[in-house]
Amino acid sequence: MLTIDIHTHILPEHIPDWKKRFGYGGFIALDHHKPCCARMLLDTGKFFREIEDNCWSPEKRMQECDHHHVQVQVLSTVPVMFSYWAKPADCLELSKFLNDHIAGIVTRYPKRFIGLGTLPMQSPELAVKELERCKASGLSGIQIGTNINQVNLNDPSFSEVFAACEELGMAVFIHPWEMMGEKEMQKYWLPWLVGMPAETTRAICSLIFGGVFSQFPQLRVAFAHGGGSFPATLGRIEHGFHCRPDLVAIDNPLNPRTYTDKFWIDSLVHDPYMLDFVVNMFGAERVALGTDYPFPLGELEPGSLIRSMPYEEAKKELLLSGSALKWLGLDKQRFL
């Protein structure tokens, strides 16, 4: 059964010294301190994350995918690389570097990898130009953050980017980053455990209540981490819509529950009861395998949760590849 993982992250093995190039700091550097391992560091030297060669080597990834019976990975950068805070022209240059790296891997291994680009979203004009270049280079979509420098995604300034994605048929993957309240909850890894699910809900609600899904009905959007806390709090969100329409329904009069068949989520929920919950809520055709490979907060045995469920084969096929193909706008025959 064809298996496509829509949520995996990759970096180039070697990253330029952006601080030296641009004249200011805040960027990520790699310290290859021992074979097959590297430290992700802020250019101030602050440690961010330890990574292994499966974070940059497509050959290593294919070896591990074969072990886990995953035929295809969708590649996107690590969200800390978005660099929306940087000067727009500098972020564009960094984005081009990352996008060319992913496009090169897809070109070399077209049956094993699908690529998503990153954009300088702080400048929608530059973002659209890079989106067009991503399309021309063979990428199938883009990955963006749940907010752009704390501006919600329904802000009118981003409409031209979404319009271009819709027109070009480029899929959009939305991943949490710059979590609200992060500074106030550093202990216990709470930004990742609490902030990320809340961030995803923030993005989903912004796009629903801001009317973006209604404005761009052909826009194909998927959200990471099982839609964050949105599925579990949809009842509360819907109740708020009904009891305080003067606050909630000011830009879009439609019930938020009507949008559960308008976007996709990945399957990264770590719990069989929750997977069944979101499959029942969204439908199997709107839930796609996503693992956050190669990071430890992801599914360590990609596809194992879906395969363990007592679903008929047709439903499992949707979850393992059918939904992903529909979101990406791709044909199954490409990978056979």
Descriptive overview:
The chain is α/β, with parallel strands linked by helices and 336 residues long. It has a single domain (4-9, 62-335), classed as Metal-dependent hydrolases (TIM Barrel), CATH 3.20.20. 40% of the residues lie in helices and 17% in strands. It is built from twelve helices and 13 strands. It has helices at 18-22, 58-68, 88-108, 124-136, 159-168, 190-209, 212-215, 230-243, 245-248, 272-282, 304-308, 313-328, and strands spanning 4-9, 28-34, 37-42, 47-52, 72-76, 113-117, 141-145, 147-148, 151-152, 171-175, 221-223, 264-266, 287-288. An eight-stranded parallel sheet has the order 1-5-6-7-10-11-12-13. Helix 4 (124-136) links the parallel strand 6 (113-117) and strand 7. The longest helix is centred in the first third of the chain and has 21 residues, at 88-108.
